[in-house]
C-alpha cells in the first residue's frame, strides 16, 4: 500500500470543502471495508483520504418519522441497521438480508452511505432499497439534493455523485400494504457475493396485483428495475402463471454480464427462476431466499 495523507474533519461541511472535484487522488473514506482492500491490492492509490469517522453523531442515527418512514444516517454501521426495531417495522426484509451480508465483522464497520456510494453492483442492500422506493440525501458545496436509490447508480462501480458530494442520509418511505422479498444466489457460501440478486416488492388487492417492483443486481452492471417484468404483473392475478410471465419477461429484458460467478446465459436463467421465487416468497409473507 502506498503512503497517503489522512484528514479527519469534524463536520460534513468541512469534509466537503476538503474534497476537490478536480483531484481524483483525494477521496472520502467511511467504513473503509471496500476501499482498503482496493488500496492493498494496488487498484487504487490515493494521495489523500478524507475520513468521515469524526462527523457528528446525528449522521449515525436511525429515526422513525410520524408518517411511517425511517431515516438512517449515512455513517450508521450496517450492524446497527440490522438490529434496529424501526427498520424492522418498516422494512423487515432488510434485517433478514443482513444475516447473509458478508460477515458480522464487516457489518460492524461498513456504513450505509459508504455501501451506496461505492457503487458495487454485487452488494445486497441496493436492490432491496430500490424495491422499497428509498431515497438518499446528498450534500454538496451549493446545497443538498434528494436522489432515488434507483437513479443513484450510473454503471459498474459508478454513481451520479459528484466528487465533492457526500450522502448524508437514507430515507425509506412507509410501505403500506406492500410486501418485499430478496433472493440471493451464490456460487460459494451463503455470505458470498451473489451471482444474482433479485428484490421484489408487491402490493396485492384481493386476488389482483395492484403494483410491483422487480429489481435485479449482481448479474448486471448496476442494480436496476426490470420494467418489463413489472408490466407483466400489474393488474394481473397473483398466481403462478403471472409469476412465470414475469420471470420470462425479466429474462428477456435483463442484460447480464459474464464473470467468475457465471456466464451471462447462466445468469439470465437464474433471473428467470428467482424472479418467480421472490414473488412467491413476498406474497407468502416476505423475507429472504438463498
Characteristics of this structure?
five-stranded mixed β-sheet, 12 helices, Uridine Diphospho-n-acetylenolpyruvylglucosamine Reductase, domain 2, alpha+beta, five-stranded antiparallel β-sheet, 290 residues, 33% helix, Enolase-like, domain 1, globular, 3 domains, Uridine Diphospho-n-acetylenolpyruvylglucosamine Reductase, domain 3
Number of strands: 15
So how many helices?
A: 12
Radius of gyration, in Å, reads 19 Å
Instruction: Count up the domains.
Output: 3
CATH architecture name of the largest domain: 2-Layer Sandwich
Biggest sheet, open or closed, and with what strands and sense? Answer: 5 strands, antiparallel
Q: Residue share in helices?
A: 25-40%
Strand order of the largest sheet: 4-5-10-6-7
**Helix-strand makeup class:** alpha+beta
Strand content: 25-35%
> Cα distance, first to last residue?
36 Å
CATH class identity of the largest domain: Alpha Beta
Using the coordinates shown, work out and report the CATH topology of the largest domain.
Answer: Uridine Diphospho-n-acetylenolpyruvylglucosamine Reductase, domain 3
Describe the structure.
- The protein starts with a strand and ends with a strand.
- It is an alpha+beta fold.
- The protein contains twelve helices and 15 strands.
- The longest helix is centred in the C-terminal third of the chain and has 20 residues, at 264-283.
- The model has no long low-confidence stretch (mean pLDDT 93).
- It folds into three domains: 5-51, Uridine Diphospho-n-acetylenolpyruvylglucosamine Reductase, domain 2 (2-Layer Sandwich), CATH 3.30.43; 59-172, Uridine Diphospho-n-acetylenolpyruvylglucosamine Reductase, domain 3 (2-Layer Sandwich), CATH 3.30.465.10; 179-289, CO dehydrogenase flavoprotein, C-terminal domain (Enolase-like, domain 1).
- The chain has helices at residues 12-18, 35-40, 78-83, 85-90, 93-98, 104-109, 112-118, 125-131, 149-152, 227-233, 240-253, 264-283; strands at 5-7, 26-29, 48-51, 62-64, 70-73, 135-140, 143-148, 153-155, 158-159, 166-172, 179-186, 194-205, 208-217, 224-225, 287-289.
- Helix 10 (227-233) runs antiparallel to helix 11 (240-253) and helix 11 runs antiparallel to helix 12.
- Strand 13 (208-217) and strand 14 (224-225) form a beta hairpin.
Amino acid at each position: 500500500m502506498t503512503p497517503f495523507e489522512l484528514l479527519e474533519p469534524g463536520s460534513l461541511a468541512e469534509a466537503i470543502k476538503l474534497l476537490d472535484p478536480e483531484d481524483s487522488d483525494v477521496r472520502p473514506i467511511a467504513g473503509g471495508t471496500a476501499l482498503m482492500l482496493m488500496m492493498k491490492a494496488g487498484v487504487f492509490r490515493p494521495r489523500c483520504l478524507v475520513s468521515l469517522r469524526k462527523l457528528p453523531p446525528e449522521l449515525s442515527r436511525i429515526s422513525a418519522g410520524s408518517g411511517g418512514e425511517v431515516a438512517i444516517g449515512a455513517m450508521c454501521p450496517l450492524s446497527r441497521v440490522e438490529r434496529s426495531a424501526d427498520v424492522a417495522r418498516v422494512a423487515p426484509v432488510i434485517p433478514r438480508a443482513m444475516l447473509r451480508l458478508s460477515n458480522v465483522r464487516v457489518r460492524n464497520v461498513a456504513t450505509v452511505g459508504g455501501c451506496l456510494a461505492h457503487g458495487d453492483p454485487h452488494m445486497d442492500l441496493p436492490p432491496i432499497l430500490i424495491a422499497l422506493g428509498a431515497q438518499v440525501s446528498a450534500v454538496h458545496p451549493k446545497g443538498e439534493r434528494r436522489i432515488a436509490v434507483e437513479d443513484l447508480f450510473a454503471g459498474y462501480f459508478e454513481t451520479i455523485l459528484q466528487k465533492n458530494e457526500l450522502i448524508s442520509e437514507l430515507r425509506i418511505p412507509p410501505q403500506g400494504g406492500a410486501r418485499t422479498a430478496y433472493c440471493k444466489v451464490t456460487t460459494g457460501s451463503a455470505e458470498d457475493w451473489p451471482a444474482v440478486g433479485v428484490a421484489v416488492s408487491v402490493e396485492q388487492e384481493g386476488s389482483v396485483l395492484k403494483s410491483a417492483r422487480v429489481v435485479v443486481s449482481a448479474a448486471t452492471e448496476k442494480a436496476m428495475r426490470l420494467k418489463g417484468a413489472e408490466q407483466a404483473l400489474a393488474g394481473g392475478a397473483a398466481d403462478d402463471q403471472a409469476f412465470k410471465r414475469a420471470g420470462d419477461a425479466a429474462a428477456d429484458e435483463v442484460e447480464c454480464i459474464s464473470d467468475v460467478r457465471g456466464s451471462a446465459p447462466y445468469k439470465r436463467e437464474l433471473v428467470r427462476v428467482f424472479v418467480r421465487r421472490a414473488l412467491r416468497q413476498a406474497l407468502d409473507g416476505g423475507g429472504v431466499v438463498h
